[in-house]
């Protein structure tokens, strides 16, 4: 899921890709933000890209 955020996907796009609901994606992303001490998708996207999990293009 974080890789998809790193690629710039929306919650809807992630939900469709993983065949989950948007609410489920929102719930798990909130957990990721808390665990990693982040406050925004932008910060998560940057971190994923630095780790090599996203190339910055969809």
Would you give an account of this structure?
It is a single chain. With 58 residues, the protein is mostly helical. Helices cover 66% and strands 0% of the residues. The longest helix is centred in the middle third of the chain and has 15 residues, at 22-36.
- Share of residues in strands: under 5%
Helix/strand-derived category reads mainly alpha
Output mean pLDDT: 88
Low-confidence stretches: none
Annotation field: number of helices: 4
Distance between the termini: 14 Å
Tell me the helix content: 55-70%
Q: How many beta-strand runs? A: 0
Keywords for this entry:
single chain; 58 residues; mainly alpha; 4 helices
Task: Describe this structure in a few short sentences.
The chain has 58 residues and is an all-alpha fold. The chain has helices spanning 2-6, 11-18, 22-36, 41-50.
């Amino acid at each position: 899921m974080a890789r998809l955020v790193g690629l710039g996907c929306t919650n809807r796009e992630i939900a469709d890709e993983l065949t989950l609901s948007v609410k489920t994606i929102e719930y798990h992303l909130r957990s990721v933000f808390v665990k990693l001490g982040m406050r925004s998708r932008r910060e998560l996207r940057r971190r994923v890209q630095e780790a090599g999990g996203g190339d910055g293009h969809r």
